[in-house]
């Protein structure tokens, strides 16, 4: 076995994680996620339940052809059916067909489930556990036994719950994992139960599988480790059924920086934020800005006192150095912000301004007016930089809008829709107004294409600029279609990305503003 | 004092909560929040820091005129400045001017802050705490002393940290509150420290103020209560600086249902989801679907096995009854869904269908095709119901689009923008095509107005239908302005609300689809 303070990290993002609302990965995406987890140093990667759906079967077929440098891939399934030999159970057969070095099976701990869901006897359930584990061990697999509803079962009947673990141990399980399947357990009580389970099944090591239904999935996992568990199961970004599984992007840094345990991935923690965000991207989710350690807001400071102190002595208001998990300190603008926060923020963007100048006062006034109209500079650094630069450096536009018109239509007897934009702009140094027209699948795209035509050869650096993401929200809800629409737009040039904003009751105008700021920002490089 | 298992709930949504990124309340909104918290049975409501900004001063002026039926309003501030008499300190004076029954002041525990931030001596800091508390007590206030950075200070110098608490007790503090200001503490260690502090300051009762930086803000608060603390400070929905404060919408149900403590608001927990969502609405935030207990996903089940079992024996996969916190069970659609999930979902919407029929197979095929094109039925029940009704009941449209055209423009030398829509539709039972034109501030509004004109007297029930919320996201990022745009639209008729969806590379077309489904849904009532 390992050292007393060594922990194994077991990732079930690809199985339990996909039970979360709105989480869906293609088999190819699953392979990409597995490769990222492997590079990061995760010890076990649960790829799916081969018997449950065709997509997971495709994943295991693809995984067979890959070489993972550190992680062991595991296939998930259940114990054999009641009153059937393990060797005759089709579901156990599919687990072997997945050809993974490790197989994880779950079995029942809670008598409620044994009698009401499986509709079998307590004795047959113990036999199902022991037989299934032995069958998989004899086929040469490392076997992890997940004791489903372990804590609910223990509360109901501690003796029987421990018997199920011993049945798995007797069958030869390499690990028994205590699952708080419904997520209702509390820390102090759970810790006592884990201690007892660890003693009872020794020398078989114990793992934890917790959920976040009481908002304490991470605390339960860590409490289990402190009580002697040596494996933590969880998901990246806390994906998972209902409110999610124990969040490994929180568990890992706390194990390392707070409790001093060791695990293979600890050497890569400074890539943690990037890992978490890249998995969100594959899951098509916007990263949670309030995620501990890795969220955009995790080291963000608002209000003069804290922001000032945090810049001076960062540990005065930060529990770890943000860089240890690949994050960074941010100073926020807010309508509580005074000159010093704006000056700090400007400094962060490379613009030096005097926090006490009258120019600063007029800038803050302007900022607050614009914020009151719906512009959101807190999340649109590029628009903020454009505003700063225009105010303090007197930067003027390299182009000026004269007018635009967008038309979006579905024409009669032809169900296709098309958008067209006419743009009239003045480009600096040119006498005539440029008038251009372009089509696209939508009005914002049409405006964008027409703009590019108008810029022509004048601004070659804009050629590679592309819209990457686009978010729209209504600011005052309840006003019907006349509400103010706020647009946030992410653009990129292949090297870096930047956010701009727009706000107007008209979604086209708000989008146009964000688009214009994106070009203005890129042209600041001149 | 209270019974041994009685806890006081101290809400700082309006002060510490507003330090969160993107959280901002007007003084009037703050009053609305305070009224909601009071009705709910919250014991203390920290309204703001009167000395720090004019808005908070307005709040306290408004609060003076209100009668709160249960809650005590508290004003927040700091101890006196170094080397100044308490009675000469302008900041302490503003705290009294707020005229609240309770004043909460924070002081320094951690010598790093005493020397580096306050730049004073350890002895003067103790005097600042004792003097300030005594001054406020002599003015007739209930005084709560918040020991800022208590746990970091204790780690650094336990003896000095405890001395600061005793200074507050000596000054006459009614409560001392242990703050984990930077959010870096861990459960087991913190619990031991709280026990020690409770003994040292007895009989003065102790409170907890925790943050979520390690994802365990709730667990720390509960651990403190188990160690003898009798007050919990936190925020609704976990608003607050960085990743937020301890989330009271999680702490409260866990205290009640999991640990058996008592507090005034426990009798209102079945209104908890509504309270939390109404505060999000005032903060202009979309409720977190993954919030424990109260999130939309908290009792949502995906995948055949769990969904089936949860419907049969709900406690088999639910840690409490959702209704206890005003939530409900939901069955999710997903591409893992088979006939039985769709049938359950349909049943939930009042439509009975046979899960094994060939009609069901063709429906699931259609559903999956549409999901693959970007429609999202998981969050758009009304669109799903329209689809179901058309497929299983052969419902046809009461109106049919012939064509539409929207124009959005900024005309030359006039910086206002305007949108116009022309709609041509056939209304059932009418010979001629209706051709209508309307203007609005945006293209979706213009389409909506033109539609209503066309419907005219035919569908009077559509008159009260209004767009309430509107969300847009890009599905495949990285494709520039040609990406598929997904629109989710919330409509209401004054009595109920419903979500519909649309998906198309053209944002106007996607919006039109969501708008059309909203009308189709309302007309299903016929």
TrEMBL record, chains A, B:
Choose any GO biological process term that the UniProt entry carries and state it: isoleucine biosynthetic process
Pathway membership: Amino-acid biosynthesis; L-isoleucine biosynthesis; 2-oxobutanoate from pyruvate: step 1/3
Q: Name any one Pfam family assigned in the record.
A: HMGL-like
Keywords attached to this Swiss-Prot or TrEMBL record, sorted alphabetically, are: Amino-acid biosynthesis, Branched-chain amino acid biosynthesis, Isoleucine biosynthesis, Transferase
Q: Which family does it belong to?
A: Belongs to the alpha-IPM synthase/homocitrate synthase family.
> Origin, by domain of life?
Bacteria
Q: Show the NCBIfam families listed in the entry.
A: citramal_synth
What is the name of this protein? Citramalate synthase
Offer an example of a GO molecular function term for this protein.
(R)-citramalate synthase activity
- Which PROSITE patterns is this protein grouped with? AIPM_HOMOCIT_SYNTH_1, AIPM_HOMOCIT_SYNTH_2, PYR_CT
Give start and end of each Pyruvate carboxyltransferase domain.
7-273
**Catalyzed chemical reaction(s):** pyruvate + acetyl-CoA + H2O = (3R)-citramalate + CoA + H(+)
Gene3D superfamilies referenced in this protein's UniProt entry, alphabetically: 1.10.238.260, 3.30.160.270, Aldolase class I (3.20.20.70)
Report the enzyme's class at the first EC level.
Answer: transferase
Q: What is its EC number?
A: 2.3.3.21
Quote the PANTHER family the UniProt record gives: (R)-CITRAMALATE SYNTHASE, ALPHA-IPM SYNTHASE/HOMOCITRATE SYNTHASE
Q: Which organism is it from?
A: Oceanipulchritudo coccoides
Q: Does the keyword tRNA-binding apply?
A: no
